Structure prediction request, 394 residues.
Amino acid sequence: MKKTALEVRNLVKRFGSVTAVDDVSFKVEQGEVVTLLGPSGCGKTTTLRMVAGFERPDFGDVEIRNQLVVSTSRRLHVPPEKRGIGMVFQSYAIWPHMTVFENVAYPLSVRGTNRQEVKRRVEETLELVGLGGFSSRPAILLSGGQQQRVSLARALVYSPDLLLLDEPLSNLDAKLREQMRIELKRLQEQLSVTVLFVTHDQIEAMSLSTRLAVMNQGKIEQMDSPQEIYERPKTPFVEDFLGRILRFQGTVTEKDRSSLLVDLDGVEGTRLRIEGSDETLAVGERVLVAIRPEALHLEPGDGGQGQNKIRCVVENVLYLGRDCELVLRFGNRVYPLIVPRAMVEKIGKSVGLYLPAEQLRVWAAARTPAEAEMDVEAQRAAPASTRSGLGGEP
Prediction:
């Protein structure tokens, strides 16, 4: 049975009137890579900084290796240097006036490690990150990728209980990011180090993580394996944030125990059968129907007629190199769809899309401001007993 390396309980952090982290709880098991993923301002970096000790929460607890390091109820706040963590910052934060050796040796030196042990461990760690032979080089003369490796070596040199990564690849160019992503994966597996990783990059999150925690407005909307989150998102935000998505609006017209029938807006007579029945949706309700682009089937021409087939007009074709992006219009909305370049020659002014029923997901549509106002007016006009939800005589 795996041991818990990190436990976060009910963390809350406010900056003035803004709640940056709102009752966040999760666990990280030993040897796991857990990634906090989300857009800018969602609270992921603030959460990481509270785990590291650089921010004090307004409420909540943090345990590292079953040792309480933060507890607002007990007024406990262990300083960062005593938490047994290593951290790699977005800006690398290496000291330009030091050599590579001095940068990596610093965490050992401040802990009073003897000189011979420092030399051995620094050299081993530099070899591990691919910087063997660089120990005497001034840090200021290193490339961005080499500086990132120095920062990683400095975080790993004293074998921390937990490694915190705060968007460590975001300052690298695309090719170097890919190389370092592979390198990080290799190092983590080789050392079995426990990692809490913060990023807004979906590819990094999907490829490096054991589990993902998708954050939005200070909360975790879903936490699960990358595959589970991608294939079975629990909220429209998670579905929309992770990967590409095609989304259509419509109205539920039929419902049984195993499926829904939705009439789509835009082109009269276009219907989608959706496998699985959501008890919260009723006939007549407005919904959003979503599908991943890779799950649908594209048919040159209009694709014929029939259930779960829609006809789109090709408005534009964008050249992307190996692939092309079709700009498709259905009703009054446009949808981007990436296809192999060879397929474009076979596509005319229209295409048919077949949307398999088992690949479709459906969500209740958010009400428009006009619909919300109508509800308010209806509530105001209702008798007091109805507004209270009791009904009948008091």
Q: What stands out?
A: The two ends are 57 Å apart (CA to CA).
